Request: fold
Amino acid sequence: MLLRQLEYLVALARERHFARTADACYVSQPSLSAAIRRLEHELDVPIVRRGRRYEGLTPEGTVVLAWAHRILAERDGLRQELSELGDGLTGTLRLGVIPTALPVASLLTTPFCESHPRARVSIASLSSAEITHGLAEFELDAAMTYLDDDTLRGLRRLPLYEERYVLLTPVDGPLATASTARWAQAAALPLCLLGPRMRNRRIMDECFAADGAVATPAIESDSVAGLYAQLPGSRWSSVISHAWLYMFGVPEGMRVVPLDGPAHAPRVGLVTGPDDPPSVLAGALLTVAGEAGVRQALDALLRTYLAGQG
Reply:
């Protein structure tokens, strides 16, 4: 059995199409098919359901695929550990990040790259479900995501910060002079919020409901950057996580108002895959994260903005 055969199988399960898989692996389609058939012959089991086109994996193929992910992950881990013994850690850290944590990902990636200048980082913006799948299938080394997800049980988790929700509102709006506001008051404003499919928005909707209100935003966005793009102009208000201030700050003509009343404090943290111990790259990121002081940095930034408003 060759590692290349396992790589082809992983790529085929991902692409679900022989021609696309061959292109992704830079081989001809006949070479790809021959490699998969040799793997089936060596293991003496059918792996791929074949018809006029790719029809998925057999039950035996699903088992082989799971082992392929593990074996290739171990191969990568070996390379990383050997590189650390040489001129320093090399390889590419595959980091999944939920969209609402992307604004603060640099608090980990920058010190990681400074500590390991020969290593690289590949960041993918993914949903919570995609992150869980990516970790389970060894497609990710680590992820920044919400920690209150039951699908993460059994995985190594390191809390980074709790989301604190604040209101961004025009300086000449109804709450321009308020020192704090309730969720129900925020719901009455012309709002721009993340879309309802976003986990962060669903958490906020629970907070509005707990204060007896329903938010009906005039504008919804599927990204934090798209939301912020709507705010300048002194018309819209928005409820945001304080972590977004790290990247986007407070738009001109707006101020930050802390929200009182019912509120969850969902935790965002760093999660690594099921391998134990974690891969060398994931272990190095855990070390950096433990020293980064993300929570303290974000809380201090929020205090600075509030103090600057008097």
